[in-house]
Design brief:
- The complex is a heterodimer of chains A (89) and B (454).
- In chain A, strands 2-3-1-4 form a four-stranded antiparallel beta sheet.
- In chain A, a hairpin with a 2-residue loop joins strand 2 and strand 3 (41-49).
- Chain A has helices at residues 15-26, 57-71, 81-86, and strands at residues 2-10, 29-38, 41-49, 73-79.
- Chain A is built from three helices and four strands, in the order E-H-E-E-H-E-H.
- With 89 residues, chain A is an alpha+beta fold.
- Chain B is α/β, with parallel strands linked by helices.
- Chain B has a domain at 27-56 and 71-193: Alpha-Beta Barrel (Anaerobic Ribonucleotide-triphosphate Reductase Large Chain), CATH 3.20.70.20.
- Chain B has 15 helices and 14 strands.
- In chain B, the strands form two sheets. In chain B, strands 1, 2, 3, 4, 5, 6, 7, 8, 9, 10, 11 and 14 form a twelve-stranded mixed beta sheet that branches.
- In chain B, strand 4 and strand 5 form a beta hairpin.
- The chains are: A alpha+beta (89), B alpha/beta (454).
Chain lengths: 89, 454
């Protein structure tokens, strides 16, 4: 299964490092990262592949919920399916 | 390569986090046709056992999908075969024990409403129908999550005026029995014309007799998303408005379709339909009235309201149709007063009256929904309002429903609070002129000429 992480929040040092490190530890492979800073706010959309993952989606969500609290940015983890369905005829 | 762009991802995320996009309900329809027995206690046990077995994983699957897809799924619900048919073989004349069995089963599987304490009497009554309708006030007063509906007419059958008269009295009795809670029982009771067998929304959901053993029907939502999209086309002509609504409805419906297919697969049952309805909640930013106002009305209920609502209702269907493989249920904009912040405000400021609401029901789904009226409104007047709504449904070949709440001891200008999704409502004025003699006639209004389509 492929997942989409969306990360929005106040920019600071090390957001990408923390996120990618957590994904690597979980065995989740990053396929695509799109990131920018808009008016001081960090925006990132990351697409990753969970087929070799050591944890399931719910466990991964929990990891990122905790990280979200810790570093103070909003991190959403969703199945890619919802985006593909909504924007494809 | 993905099928979507970064812009798409951010748009979807914004719809969910900022504009309250959600799936309003996953409703599992369960046939209880095999639960009949002469002993009502055996019937009640069979009902309980079947529901708790078939819907054991409903809430779990709903929560899993919510987590995986990141879209809120607000309600998980159950609809069952009209209990008038299930109870018909019982020797007992009160079906309250069956309502209690539904209530227990709903609590056991964790759903927040269960619909189907219902009777379909479009043309007349059977023994089971009479028993069920007589049991409604006590059933609604002694259960928590059971919803009841009675179909009193259809385009094909005409209107059963005996049932119309009786339902006025039943609504009053239900109000009296639940007077301590501002007549909350009436918020769980719907009177239909042209009832549909696959509606996932409460309080009117029941599992029709033509439906399979079990089925998953999904109701989408998203008034906030439509309102937000329309803010980008301010000042443009109505073609642009309709087009924007269509595109937005398409996206909303795709989410519902995905959830419905996945839920049906994981629950090992059949996907029934998506109900393309814009269902509001009392939350800020989730109002159908505010969509109409965004199109250019000063306050919902002013002249122009019926036209904008007609366009909205039609555009939602056009957009949603292609997004789902099976569309059904009520499919249209809902205009419940107490469940919509904009409608509540419109009643409070005097722009929205019962008469205007009746006109609006001619062009959208359902009807006079969640409207609090003075407690001293007579049963005959409530029946006459039901008859008017049923006539609109019968002649226009559409579903209409009446969910009125005559609040004991309260009058015009006072407010009634139901809490949660049911919201709150200012009490609205009802005509003081009477139709008692019309209601006292009883009998049937014959099916209209447009029923002869063969």
């Amino acid at each position: 299964m492929r997942i989409v992480l969306t990360i929005v929040g106040k920019d600071k040092v090390g957001i990408i490092a923390k996120v990618s490190n957590a994904l690597a530890n979980a065995g989740v492979n990053i396929l695509n990262i799109n990131q920018n800073i808009m008016e001081g706010f960090f925006n990132m959309v990351l697409i990753a592949d969970m087929s070799e993952s050591k944890v399931d989606l719910l466990a991964l969500k929990k990891i990122f919920n905790e990280m979200s609290e810790e570093i103070g940015v909003e991190i959403r983890v969703q199945s890619e399916e919802i985006f593909a369905t909504m924007h494809r005829v | 390569m993905s099928f979507f762009t970064i812009k798409d991802v951010l748009e979807t995320t914004k719809m969910i986090t900022k504009n309250k996009l959600d799936v309003r309900t996953i409703t599992m329809g369960i046939s209880l046709r095999d639960c009949g027995h002469s002993d009502i206690n055996v019937t009640a046990d069979k009902i309980y056992d079947k529901i708790t077995k078939k819907a054991a994983n409903l809430v779990k699957v709903g929560e899993e999908l919510e987590a995986e897809l990141g879209v809120p799924i607000i309600n998980k619900r159950i609809s069952v075969t009209p209990i008038s048919m299930v109870g018909e073989s019982c020797d007992a004349s009160s079906y309250v024990p069956l309502a209690k069995a539904l209530d227990r089963a709903a609590a056991e599987v964790g759903v927040n409403f269960i619909g189907g304490f219902s009777a379909l009497v479009d043309k007349g009554y059977t023994k089971g129908d009479r028993n069920l309708i007589a049991s409604i006030p006590e059933a609604l007063a002694t259960t928590n999550v059971v919803c009841s509906s009675v179909s009193v007419g259809s385009t094909k059958s005409g209107i059963n005026m005996d049932a119309v008269a009786e339902m006025g009295r039943i609504i009053k009795q239900t109000a009296d029995l639940t007077a301590a809670n501002d007549a909350i029982g009436c918020a769980k009771l719907v009177v239909f014309c042209n009832a549909v067998p696959d509606n996932p929304f409460m309080a009117g959901a029941f599992h029709g007799v033509t439906e399979p053993e079990t089925v998953i029907n999904v109701g989408v939502s998203g008034p906030g998303v439509v309102k937000k999209a329309l803010e980008n086309v301010r000042g443009q002509d109505m073609g642009a408005v309709a087009e924007t609504i269509k595109k937005t409805a398409f996206k909303i419906t795709r989410v519902g379709q995905l959830v419905a297919q996945e839920a049906a697969k994981r629950l090992d049952t059949q996907f029934g339909i998506i109900d393309l309805s814009l269902a509001p909640t009392p939350a800020v930013g989730d109002s159908v009235a505010h969509i109409l106002e965004e199109i250019g009305l000063e306050s919902c209920g002013c002249p122009g309201t019926t036209a904008t609502l007609a366009m909205l209702n039609d555009a939602v269907k056009k957009g949603g149709l292609m997004a789902s493989s099976y569309v059904g249920g009520l499919s249209g904009a809902f205009i419940p007063v107490s469940e919509d912040a904009g409608m509540i405000a419109a009643v409070e400021c005097g722009s929205l009256s019962l008469d205007k609401l009746e006109a609006m029901t001619c062009v959208c789904s359902v009807g006079l929904d969640m409207i609090a009226i003075p407690g001293d409104t007579s049963a005959a007047t409530i029946s006459a309002i039901i008859a008017d709504e049923a006539a609109i449904g019968m002649i226009n070949n559409k579903t209409t429903a009446v969910r009125l709440i005559p609040v004991p001891g309260k009058g015009i200008g006072e407010t009634v609070e139901f809490g949660g999704l049911l919201g709150y409502a200012p009490i609205i004025a009802v005509s003081k002129f009477k139709a008692d003699e019309f209601i006292a006639r009883g009998g049937r209004i014959p099916a209209p000429v447009r029923s002869l389509t063969n």
